[in-house]
Specification:
- The protein is of the alpha/beta class and 242 residues long.
- It has 9 helices and 7 strands, in the order ααβαβαββαβααβααβ.
- The protein has a single domain, classed as Vaccinia Virus protein VP39 (Rossmann fold, 3-Layer(aba) Sandwich).
């Protein structure tokens, strides 16, 4: 195998993984229920990755029109292949998730809103919401009385993390109200990390130095999670404009 760039090593690691972040179909079902998303909704999966949640959205709302967007071409291609059986009612494109047209009854953003920031994303998406539209997103959340292991995990992964109250404050400052909140702990993270462990093992033989470094980094992240799996959480929020 020839030497890879850092970006190529990252994409090699994530190739063939079902998810690019923590999550579970049940979480999406909860969000759709709290948001009151109608059967014939127009939905956007913002930062869709390879389409794990796009697929679930299409199944959960079989009469909905679903648009999905991601900036990484490899993920877009994978999502297009996964959702091809749904035909034209699921459209996946490469683009900037901060620039959505709409109007959408629901904008879903799993584990990607931190790339933009909660406040900036919610303000940018407001014009893309239909009347009565909702946004559902997940954001890293520090739980009360965190152990040192939990602090170590987040200091390495997301130093600007806040607790739930900090997330609520950012939502309010963007001019939205919280309709529902939930925590993604345990199973949602296993859905992400356990397949990644298997992927790392399969790539170890013959890995180039750059790829080996990427595998080491991912392995270290998983080890930090295993040190405090009951404390590592995303906050899943369903919000609406005021």
């Amino acid at each position: 195998m020839s030497e890879l760039s850092q970006d190529e090593a990252f994409l090699t690691l994530y190739s063939d993984l079902a998810r690019e972040g923590p999550g579970a179909p049940a979480d999406l079902g909860w969000a759709l229920s709290v948001a009151g998303t109608p059967a014939t909704a127009r939905i956007c999966d913002a930062g869709c990755g390879s389409g794990a949640d796009t697929l679930t959205l299409a199944k959960e709302r079989p009469k909905a029109q679903i648009d999905a967007v991601d900036k990484i071409a490899q993920f877009v291609t994978a999502a297009q292949k996964r959702t091809a059986p749904f035909g034209d009612r699921v459209q996946v494109r490469q683009g900037d998730m901060a620039r959505l047209d709409g109007p959408y009854d629901l904008i879903w953003c799993a584990g990607a809103i931190y790339f933009i920031g909660i406040g900036q994303a919610l303000r940018a998406w407001r014009p893309a919401l239909a009347t009565g539209g909702r946004v559902a997103f997940s954001e890293p959340c520090m739980l009360p009385r965190p152990s040192q292991a939990a602090r170590d995990f987040w200091s390495a992964e997301y130093a600007q993390i806040t607790d739930m109250e900090g997330i609520r404050d950012r939502v309010a400052q963007a001019g939205y109200r919280v309709l529902g909140e939930n925590l993604q702990i345990g199973a949602a993270w296993e859905n992400y990390y356990l397949p990644m462990e298997r992927r790392i093992a399969s790539l170890r033989p013959g890995a180039t130095p750059t790829l080996a470094a990427a595998l080491d980094q991912a392995e270290a992240e998983i080890a930090r999670w295993r040190a405090a799996p009951s404390e590592i959480a995303y906050a899943l929020m369903v919000v609406a404009p005021e």
